[in-house]
Structure formats: C-alpha cells, structure tokens
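Quick illustration, no need to memorize.
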Amino acid sequence: METIQMEKTMSLQKNKTIIALLALFLSLGVAAQVYRIVDEQGNVKYTDQPPANDPSAEALQLPSVNTQPAVSPRESSTESEKQEVGYKEVVILTPAQDSTITPGQLEVVVQVYLEPALRSGHRVQLIHNGQPHGPAAPATSFVIDSLIRGEHTVQVQVIDSADNPVGQSATVTIHVKRHSIQHNPK
C-alpha cells in the first residue's frame, strides 16, 4: 500500500516539474523577436513569426518598454482632521417648536438630524432646560420622561472625542399640560 502511495506522489511531482518547465518554455516566447515585412504591393506588416524564406523580413530592435513606478495614493485626511470639521446641520426634528405635550403623554422623544451623519467617536448631548440630560451618547434619539407642567426648552450639542462641541441645534420650546387640582371643581 505504501509503495503505491509513493509511486503516486513521485508521479505527481514529476507532472508538476513537467508543467513548470513547459510554462518556462512558453514564457520565453513572450520575449520573441519582432519582424518588419514589406509585401509586393509595398504594404508594411509587423509580426513575431516571419514567413519562411522571405528576404523582405527585417528583424527589428525595439526600445525597452517605458515603465513608470506606481504613484503612491495621497493619504486621506486623518480621523482627527475629519473630526475637527463641524456639522452642516444639527436639527431637532421632534418635538416641533411650540408643541404642546398633552396630560396623558408621560414622555417626549427627541429626535435629531445631523448632516453629515454622526461621526465615529462623536456623541450627542441632550440639554433640557439649560442642563445636560444624562450623559452624551452616540445616538440621535433621546427620551425625556417625568415632565412637570410648564414651559421646557430642549437643545442638543454634538461633542467630539476630545469633549469639544462641534455642532449645536437651535433651542426648541415645548409646553407641557398637566391636570391641576385648582382647575377641578368638586
């Protein structure tokens, strides 16, 4: 059994050697000579295989191929340079300016639109009534709950990885309505 396996291995190695030599000989033809031939009508032809016994076949010495080294691509701006650029738009989509929050609604969803989209390493800080509302997060949607009756302001600020503000929305004012004992007659 081992002898048959050894014979197969040797045969395979012999075949690989033959294929490699064949590829080498075929590649030598690529660097073949170029000939210029002028026929009876004076037409000039170029070929790498001149017709046998043709006195008009002239071997040509071609100049070497003009090659240029590859040009290295220009490095794109680094991530820190991209982060220094601000945002074209920072807009609070919801809630709308001067919207009213009805008594049954217990939370408000704040949705933010950014142009361009939030970059890697950047975070959005929700500001409710002039104070940060929770930690800055890599998100564009926030929830404010347990709102008391009255007027509230909402704003967002985009912060880069070095905690520097790089964008800010306009302030949106909302009005929260809640039931009051003073307005409930008994």
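The longest helix spans residues 2-28.
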